[in-house]
Design a protein that fits this description.
The complex is a heterodimer of chains A (286) and B (406). In chain A, 65% of the residues lie in helices and 1% in strands. With 286 residues, chain A is mostly helical. The chains are: A mainly alpha (286), B alpha+beta (406).
Chain lengths: 286, 406
C-alpha cells in the first residue's frame, strides 16, 4: 500500500529484533484496514446490546448464544455474549486477514526484498511477523470485551455478576475475569495465526492466504462438530475455543486455560517450523 | 543443495517431537507403585475409616455401554433423555468435600453448570442454564446421618454423578457371598498410589465381568470405580479422579446463596421419608425381599433411571435370584408407559417422544422389545411387564416365562 507512512521510513532501526517489532506494530496499526477490522469486531457486542434493548420485553432465555438471557439483568454480560458470538466466525475472519497477509502481503507489494536487504535474518522476520499477528489477536478480543462492557454499561443496569456456579462476584473481580477471558480467547487464536503465517509463506497472493486460513478455521470447527471423528477432536486448534466458560466458575478453573495454551503452543511449534522451512528455502523474487 | 534441505530439518523434527510428546507423556504416567501388602479386609477397613477426609478434586465419568447415540440435552427436563444422559458420553465433575456436612459437587457442562451444595442442614441444587435453584432445609438430627460417603439418597432431586466414595460405599454394602473380593494390584490414580480392590461376580450368568475400586493408599478414600462388562477390555463405566488435592477446601465454597434473578423453589422435606430412606440405605442388604435391587450395579443404575426407582418405592417389583445375576421385574404399567417416560422432575414426557426414543433404543426379540447395553439389559414384554438385570436377555426371557425362582 503506497499510503503506508512508516513502511518507507527507518530501515536502520530494523536491524534489532525489538526495533523491527516496533516498526511492524506501527505498520499494522497505521493501516486503515486494521482499524476497520477492529471496528467490525466492536460492532458485534454493540449490535447485540441494541437489539436486546429494543426488544427488551423480557426473556431471551432458552435459546440463542450463551449469556444472552442474562444481559437484561446485567449489562456486563454483553461482553461475554459478544465474545461467544465472535469466536466461530468474526474472530477467525479478522485473524485470517492479518495472519494471511504477514508474508504474502509484503511479497505482493514487493517490499519483502527490501525488508530482507537490511541485515534481518529470515527467521527473525518470521518471529516478528508472528508476534505482530499475536498482538492483533489480543487487540481483537480486548476490543470486543471493552466495547461490550461499555455498551452494556450504557444500556443496562450493572451490578455484581453471577457466575455459572451460582456464586456472585463483585464488579472488580469481574473486570479481572473479563481480562482473563480476553486473554483466553486471544491465546486460542494463536494456533490459527501460526497456520496463517505458514500459508502466507506459500504464496505471493495475500487474498489467497487469507481465504485459505479462514477456510481452515471453518474446516476445523466442522470436524470438531462431527461425533464420528471424536478421536481427532483434541488435536484440532478449535477444540478449546468455547472452553472459556471455565473462567466463569467458582472457584476459577485454570485447567482448560492450560490445556488450550499447550495445544496452541503445539500448533505454533509445528507450523512455525514449517513456515521456517518454507521461508528459509524460498527464493525471494519480490 | 544440501543447506537448503538442512533448513527443512526443523519442519520435519518439530512436528515429530510434538506428536510424540503428546502421545507418549500421558501413556507413561502410570507405573505401578510398590506398597505394603494388604488383604482385602484391610483395604475395606481403610475405606470405612476414610469418612471425613477433606479434599477437592476433579472427577471424570465415562460410560461406554454400547447405547446408540441419543440426542441428549444437558439439563433438559422436557425430554426423557435427562436420565439417560449419565449413561452415555462423559462428564467432568468438580468435587469439594470439607467434612461430612459440607459437600459441593459441580457438573461442568458446556457453558453451564449444575451444582449440589450441602452446608450443615442446608441443601441447595443450582442449575445455571434455566437459572433455577432448589433449597431444602434438612430436618434437625438428620444432618449427622448424611455423610459424603452415604451420599446417594442424601441429595433429593439430584440425578447427577456421585463421588467414587459414594458409589464404592454402596457397592461394598452390597457385597454378599456371590462376590469374590480380592486385592488385585497397585496402580496410580490422579498421581496417588492406590490399592485396587476387585469385586468379581461368581456367577457366570451376569454381564458384569468385574468391578475395580482404586483406594488411596494413604487416606483410604476410593479414588476410582470401574465396571467392566464381559467381553470388553475397556471399562463400560468409569468414575474417577483425574486430579485430587487433600487440603480442606475454602469454607466460602459451601456458603451458597443463589444469584439475583434466579428462580428459587423451597422444597419442604418430609423428615420421616428421609429417615426411612437413610435407614433403608444402611439396612441389611442382600435380603431377597429388599425393596430395591440387590445387585450393586443394578442398584447404582437404578438411581439414574428414576422411573425404576419410583416404581420401586411402591414396593411392587419382584426380584428373581440374588446377587449379580438377579432379575428385577416390574408389573405391567396401567398405560404400559416406558418407565423412563417420567423424568426426575416428574414431568411426563410426551407420548410421541417416548415412543420414538423407545423405538430408537430397543430391538425386537421373542416376547417383547429389549434394550441392550454392555452392562444392563431391559426387556419390555408385549403385555407391558418390565424385566431388568445385569444379565443376558435369555435370562430375562426365562424370568418372563416364569422359569426362574422368585
Amino acid at each position: 500500500m503506497p499510503s503506508d507512512p512508516s513502511r518507507a521510513s527507518a530501515p536502520a532501526i530494523r536491524t534489532s529484533g525489538l526495533g523491527l517489532f516496533a516498526s511492524e506494530v506501527r505498520v499494522l496499526f497505521a493501516r486503515r484496514r486494521t482499524w476497520a477490522l477492529l471496528a467490525a469486531l466492536a460492532a458485534v457486542p454493540v449490535l447485540i446490546a441494541i437489539a436486546i434493548r429494543l426488544s427488551s420485553d423480557g426473556d431471551a432465555r432458552g435459546g440463542g448464544p450463551p449469556f444472552l438471557g442474562s444481559i437484561t439483568q446485567n449489562g456486563l454480560f454483553v461482553a461475554l455474549t459478544g465474545l461467544a458470538v465472535s469466536i466461530p466466525l468474526f474472530l477467525p475472519l479478522t485473524i485470517g486477514v492479518v495472519a494471511g497477509d504477514t508474508i504474502a502481503g509484503e511479497a505482493n507489494l514487493g517490499t519483502l526484498r527490501y525488508l530482507l536487504v537490511a541485515p534481518v535474518a529470515r527467521v527473525r522476520l518470521l518471529i516478528v511477523k508472528f508476534a505482530v499477528a499475536a498482538l492483533f489477536c489480543f487487540a481483537a478480543t480486548l476490543t470486543i470485551v471493552l466495547a461490550g462492557t461499555a455498551i452494556g454499561a450504557a444500556l443496562f443496569p450493572v451490578g455484581p455478576v453471577p457466575l455459572l456456579s451460582g456464586d456472585t462476584i463483585g464488579v472488580g473481580e469481574y473486570a479481572l475475569r473479563a481480562l482473563l477471558l480476553a486473554a483466553y480467547v486471544a491465546v486460542s487464536l494463536l494456533g490459527l495465526s501460526a497456520v496463517g503465517l505458514f500459508i502466507s509463506t506459500l504464496t505471493t497472493v495475500p487474498v489467497g492466504a487469507m481465504a485459505a486460513t479462514i477456510v481452515l478455521a471453518a474446516v476445523s470447527q466442522i470436524l470438531g462438530a462431527l461425533p464420528q471423528l471424536e478421536w481427532l477432536h483434541p488435536w484440532l486448534f478449535s477444540h478449546h475455543w468455547f472452553g472459556f466458560a471455565d473462567l466463569m466458575r467458582q472457584p476459577i478453573s485454570f485447567g482448560t486455560f492450560g490445556d488450550n495454551a499447550l495445544l496452541q503452543l503445539g500448533y505454533i511449534a509445528v507450523f512455525g517450523a514449517l513456515a521456517y522451512g518454507r521461508f528459509a528455502t524460498k527464493d525471494i523474487l519480490s | 543443495m544440501s543447506s537448503k534441505w538442512m533448513r527443512w530439518l526443523p519442519a520435519a523434527i518439530v512436528p515429530a517431537v510434538v506428536v510424540t510428546a503428546a502421545v507418549a507423556i500421558p501413556a507413561t504416567a502410570g507405573a505401578a507403585p510398590t506398597l505394603p501388602e494388604k488383604s482385602a479386609d484391610e483395604v475395606l477397613a481403610m475405606i470405612a475409616d476414610s469418612t471425613g477426609v477433606a479434599f477437592s478434586g476433579t472427577l471424570e465419568q465415562r460410560s461406554d455401554l454400547g447405547l446408540p447415540d441419543i440426542p441428549t440435552t444437558p439439563g433438559s427436563s422436557e425430554l426423557p433423555t435427562g436420565a439417560l444422559e449419565f449413561l452415555t458420553g462423559s462428564h467432568t465433575v468438580r468435587a469439594f468435600v470439607g467434612d461430612s456436612s459440607s459437600v459441593r459437587l459441580q457438573v461442568l457442562d458446556d457453558m453451564a453448570e449444575r451444582d449440589v451444595i450441602i452446608n450443615g442442614d442446608e441443601l441447595w441444587l443450582y442449575d445455571s442454564d434455566p437459572n433455577e435453584a432448589v433449597h431444602v432445609t434438612l430436618p434437625e438430627g438428620t444432618t449427622a446421618a448424611i455423610d459424603a460417603h452415604a451420599g446417594g439418597d442424601a441429595y433429593p432431586g439430584y440425578t447427577g454423578p456421585r463421588t467414587p466414595a459414594e458409589v464404592a460405599t454402596r457397592l461394598i454394602e452390597a457385597i454378599d457371598p456371590s462376590t469374590s473380593v480380592s486385592v488385585a494390584t497397585t496402580a496410580l490414580v490422579a498421581g496417588r498410589s492406590v490399592y485396587q480392590l476387585s469385586l468379581d461376580p461368581k456367577s457366570s450368568e451376569t454381564l458384569v465381568d468385574g468391578v475395580t475400586l482404586s483406594v488411596d493408599s494413604e487416606t483410604g478414600l476410593p479414588l476410582r470405580v470401574e465396571v467392566t462388562a464381559v467381553g470388553q477390555d475397556d471399562p463400560a463405566v468409569s468414575l474417577g479422579f483425574s486430579a485430587i488435592d487433600f487440603s480442606a477446601p475454602d469454607a466460602s465454597l459451601f456458603d451458597f446463596s443463589p444469584p439475583a434473578g434466579a428462580t428459587v423453589t423451597e422444597k419442604p422435606i418430609d423428615p420421616e421419608a428421609l429417615e426411612r430412606r437413610l435407614s433403608k440405605h444402611s439396612a441389611a442388604h442382600g435380603a431377597l425381599d429388599a425393596p430395591h435391587p440387590t445387585d450393586p450395579n443394578e442398584d447404582h443404575l437404578a438411581k439414574h433411571l428414576p422411573g425404576v426407582d419410583a416404581a420401586g418405592a411402591e414396593g411392587a417389583p419382584a426380584v428373581y435370584g440374588s446377587g449379580w445375576d438377579a432379575v428385577v421385574a416390574l408389573p405391567a404399567m396401567p398405560d404400559a408407559a416406558f418407565p423412563m417416560g417420567t423424568d426426575a422432575g416428574g414431568t411426563p414426557a410426551s407420548a410421541a417422544e417416548t415412543a420414538q426414543l423407545l423405538e430408537q433404543l430397543t430391538t425386537d426379540v421373542e416376547g417383547g422389545r429389549v434394550l441392550s447395553t454392555a452392562l444392563v439389559t431391559v426387556l419390555i414384554t408385549d403385555d407391558g411387564r418390565i424385566f431388568a438385570g445385569a444379565v443376558p436377555v435369555e435370562r430375562l426371557q426365562a424370568a418372563a416365562a416364569g422359569a426362574l425362582e422368585r
